Amino acid sequence: MATLNIVYYTGTGNTEEIAKYIGEGAEKAGATVKLINVEEANESTVDADFIAFGSPAVGAEEIAPEMVEFFEGIKDKIVGKTVGLFGSYDWGQGGWMDTWHEEIINEGLSVVNDGLIIHLAVDDDEKIEKCKEYGRAIVG
Ligand SMILES: Cc1cc2nc3c(=O)[nH]c(=O)nc-3n(C[C@H](O)[C@H](O)[C@H](O)COP(=O)(O)O)c2cc1C
């Protein structure tokens, strides 16, 4: 069975919620899913068939420093993979995801469907379905 590890940073829980729904979608599609807070992640966190990374927009359209640091430590292990990227934002227009996407591509990786961005919390059916669909796409 395919495995998906989802590693995320969250400040107030919104990106964690996205991670959970992505996980549900991937499980429905038959994958075995692990959710890992980046603060508890280590090198073995990326030992899975599929990997997804989540970070909200922080700073001024930036990826959480915790996630940047984690990624630097494991990037050599995942060269050539196609990964999921997702996160929550508020007042911006998703600039942090564009930057993140570009950085990931420069590292020799590909991104499933250009990433998934959700405004604040996953608080309606449309957002829930988007997250689940992204989970299916990551393991599809
Ligand atoms: C310190 C800080 C910086 C932020 N910077 C941005 C930003 O640059 N652009 C944006 O759209 N939202 C920004 N936000 C809003 C968060 O991305 C938004 O609240 C998000 O839902 C937080 O996700 P989380 O609950 O997973 O931490 C910022 C929030 C905080 C607390």
UniProtKB/TrEMBL annotation:
Pfam families: Flavodoxin_1. SUPFAM superfamilies: Flavoproteins. Its cofactor is FMN. InterPro entries: Flav_short, Flavodoxin/NO_synth, Flavodoxin_CS, Flavoprotein-like_sf. Keywords: Electron transport, Flavoprotein, FMN, Transport. PROSITE patterns: FLAVODOXIN, FLAVODOXIN_LIKE. Transmembrane segments: none annotated. Residues 4-139 form the Flavodoxin-like domain. One of its GO terms (molecular function) is FMN binding. Belongs to the flavodoxin family. NCBIfam families: flav_short. Low-potential electron donor to a number of redox enzymes. This is Flavodoxin. It comes from Leptotrichia shahii.
